[in-house]
Write a structure and sequence with these properties.
about 280 residues, alpha+beta, Aminopeptidase, globular, Acetyltransferase
């Protein structure tokens, strides 16, 4: 538990690795900041990421964040939350510096709301693109593109090998976990890409989407959306205008934007042209 005398210096506030038993407290904290409980996402995060937190004076969770490592070359920070009553005491900065220290030499990235962006800029993050979250019921025709089919166990090694080239860092643990948890996980029959989708509360999140070109990305997304028939969410960087314009025309319209930020504005590893949507902004 946090000692009261440490509140005078946020740099001395202890940060602990949270366990699955802390999941409910993380969801309560998220709800208090109008993020929603998102139980499926938190379950996934505790499976694939490291979750850290700060305990308040009475044992409550005062703040939390996640760190997802991809080998030693890339890492992502997400879900940076501080309880409203503890704002302005440097706890967000403490969580961030703790996670950044653990990331070591890896290139660290995150998605930032406008509220969090000033803090991240002070810590050396630079905006390299804007992310546009599209939400809606897909109502467009099936676009021209390769046929798709569900991933099999035999496909997984090829998917992981291709993802390593595209992403530039090893996220095999994350994708293997997703392979077992996703509602849909499909590949293009010609080997030009793959996509997965997982349900987060009221909608289906389509991601990641990795494809050689926009044509394949559109086909993968359309086939998943058609199977579900309900509201879907796709996150796409602003630079992916061909994908975003097609989503909008197909009923999956822009909902909100965040900043995609990287420490020092460094170039990310891999072939960013083949990355069309993340698993979730948290990772």
């Amino acid at each position: 538990m946090l000692r009261h005398d440490l509140w005078t210096d946020a740099d001395l506030v202890p940060v602990r690795r949270l366990t699955y038993e802390d999941r409910a407290a993380c969801m309560d904290l998220a709800v208090s900041r109008d993020w929603g409980p998102e139980d499926p996402k938190w379950r996934f995060l505790f499976d694939v990421a490291e979750v850290y937190g700060i305990d308040g004076p009475s044992g409550e969770l005062a703040g939390c964040c996640t760190l997802t490592r991809y080998g030693t070359t890339s890492a992502a920070i997400g879900m940076v939350l501080v309880a409203e009553r503890f704002e302005g005491r440097g706890l967000g900065r403490r969580l961030m510096t703790h996670a950044m220290g653990l990331a070591g030499v890896a290139v660290v990235s995150l998605y930032a709301t406008e509220i969090g962006r000033p803090l991240y800029e002070k810590l050396g993050f630079r905006t390299t693109d804007r992310n546009v979250t599209h939400v809606g019921v897909f109502d467009g025709p099936r676009p021209d593109g390769p046929a798709t089919r569900p991933v099999t166990d035999a496909d997984l090694p090829r998917v992981l090998a291709g993802d390593l080239i595209a992403f530039g860092a090893d996220r095999s643990d994350l994708l293997t976990t997703l392979f077992g948890a996703a509602e849909h996980f499909v590949v293009a029959e010609d080997g030009s890409g793959y996509a997965a989708a997982w349900r987060n509360t009221s909608m289906l999140v389509i991601g990641p989407v990795v494809a050689d070109d926009a044509r394949t990305a559109r086909a993968l997304i359309a086939d998943i959306a058609a199977k579900d028939g309900g509201k879907v969410r796709v996150d796409a960087l602003h630079a992916k205008t061909d994908l975003r314009d097609w989503l909008t025309a197909s009923g999956v319209t822009p909902y909100f934007e965040t900043s995609f930020m990287v420490v020092g504005g460094a170039a990310l590893p891999g072939d960013q042209r083949r990355l069309w949507a993340p698993v979730t902004q948290a990772v």
